[in-house]
Write the structure tokens for this entry.
Amino acid sequence: MTNPLTFLARRAWSNLRNEVLVLPSRTLVAVWVVAGLLLPVVYPDPYVLRIAAMTCIFATFAASWDLLAGYAGQINFGHALFFGAGAYGSAIITQDLGLNPWIGLAGGAVVATVVGLAVGYLCLRLRGSYLSLATLAFPLIVTGLLFAFPGFSGGELGISGVRSLAASRTANYYIAAIGMLLVVFGLWVIADSKFGLILHAIRDDEVAVRASGINTIRVKLAAFGISAFAAGISGALYAHFMRGAGPSTLATALSFQVVIWAIFGGIATIYGPVTAVFVLYPLTEWLGGFRFFGEMRLLIFAVIVVIVLIFMPRGLTPWVRDKIETQCPRCKQRNAMWRSDCRLCGASLHVGSRSASSSS
């Protein structure tokens, strides 16, 4: 009789070989996941772990914006509202109510979801630039309310002394990293489902989708709720990792920062904004360690983003993927660039190039 562990190991290896290692992009993702999980073992420097944990938190935040704006087309210029709602909600539940930090984490995500549904209900009848400007106003309104009630929110100083989710920095890093993997994978599954296809259709032609009998308001409201939930988790993780929640979690700069990450990495991909955060956030932190580059790092950051937008208009990640993979003209499945025929249907992957060479 086969050992259950041996059976599971063989099945895992079969899935890894037939589903992951067949495409370079999936292989790179697998390497990235393994590297992230092994980082504290290989290089347990506290500063590096801090930067890595913050990168994971902001990557989750960027992926949440991409579901709402990239897939559903609801361009949100005030996405920091959900991040701040998760941070403040978790901090208040943990500090004022004295509950367990894990309960605070879940509560912060729920608070952000409620805020997202409320904002969606108020704004979803707006479109285009009107929707973007309306969402931009909400973080400013909430910030004013927080300043008006300092006894409840801490005012300009915010809430400090929030308890961490774990005692050691390594454990906190693993919480941020595993949380990012779970949330990002969940968002990718949602975006790749029938619900994601409906979001795509709403973004392209909402009138046609409504004419087909789909309640577009309800679908977009669900997108707001899911996106806010993911952003709330990232905000709650931020509050527990940084031991506090302040007005900076609602800052307009943070809302525009997530837009830059998404455009840099590639909109409507989920993994694109995550890649952008892992490239840009550690880079800007590293440049900040040098006196000259520290003063110029925002300019360098802007130059890098402009270069990518000029030469890679779809974003960094789609550009790299197109360089290492080829799409089959028959079944539309992706294959490694070095293959001459499709791994699934066997069709030639270079029909266009062959016919062009023969005609010449």
Remarks:
- The domain at 42-313 is CATH 1.10.3470 (ABC transporter involved in vitamin B12 uptake, BtuC).
- The first helix runs from residue 4 to 20.
